[in-house]
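Hi everyone,

Forwarding the result from last night's run.
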Amino acid sequence: MPADAPRLLALVNARLALPDGEREGGVLCAGGRIVALLAPGQAPPDGAELVDCGGLLLAPGLIDSHVHGGGGHTLMTDEPEEVRAYARWVVRHGVTSFLVSTSGRDHAEILRRLRALAPVVGREPGAARVLGFHLEGPYINPARKGAFDARWLRPPSAGEYRDLFEASGGAVRQMTLAPELPGADDLIRAVVASGAAAAMGHTDATYEQARRAIDLGVTHVTHCFNAMRPFSHRDPGVLGAILESDAVSAELIGDGAHVDYAAARVLLRAKGADHVVLVTDGMPLAGTPDGEAEWEGEHIRVDGGKAVRDDGTIVGGVTTLDQMVRNAAAHMGVARDDALRMASGNAARAIGAGETYGPLAPGRAADFVLLGGDLRVAGTWVAGERVF
């Protein structure tokens, strides 16, 4: 091999999680990308670094497109090192990339956070990739605010959004908004024009308002069922529009606490696994023992897989994405390859990154997770570097 040739990495003796099912084989990587899939017993090129996967399942790296923190680290911050620390922690749960989901008390604070964190977007050694930002608010409905402080919220502004997009260095990938609010039509158009995904969430939209938003370019739904008008046979609301539209993908917090598993199965029956994206909506206590803490000025308590304020409002997820994959396979009536796709390729596609991340295929990023028969993480690679 020439001295300046990229290092070859071959992960062999694996069971590959492919779009058309599982099969034995391996993956050859170079320059942070997949070069080829190897047939069972196929010898990699001379000089390739070999990793024997011991017959375990090699799957695309998990992608969390809606997360506010975990492992004691918050992403609602203007401190780059907080994000870097989270990125180093989350790889133990098979996550190879994520969006920094953030908001702020006012426009100036969100701008400051985006400017401060924009340099972190990308990949650093030993850590998951930061794919960009998910702005959850502030253009959401106070009637469906969930854990948001109503004082943080305001009417949609396309002009403000363009300021935010510029402050992020063009790295906003998803914008959650309530389409029924005055000014939302122009905001949806601005989000779509920027290349980000316009997502309905924290919304009291009627069925007709939600359908109009989809016609305007909304392609995604933030934490389906949670913080939105519930479905009724005479008032199908936003859920009715979601369930009948193939144009939108639906986030699902797959912890069994935010959404009952029976409701999750209904969503999957209606949308199909290809249109559902597992997300954690994780907050700093995700992946840590039960206990009490303060987050964004609120006292919270974590108990039994749920984080709540003193008034009982759920304030975010505490279950990791790998556990949600296990939950989906065990409780949502989907095969494990569907469960994995819901936490990888579907997320990439929803945020416009499906050409680079997701399926194990030549040309895609060399981001992998190695899983045991119980779907527990045995190893994680980002751009061909083993990070866990």
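The chain has two domains: 8-59+363-386, 61-350.

Cheers,
N.
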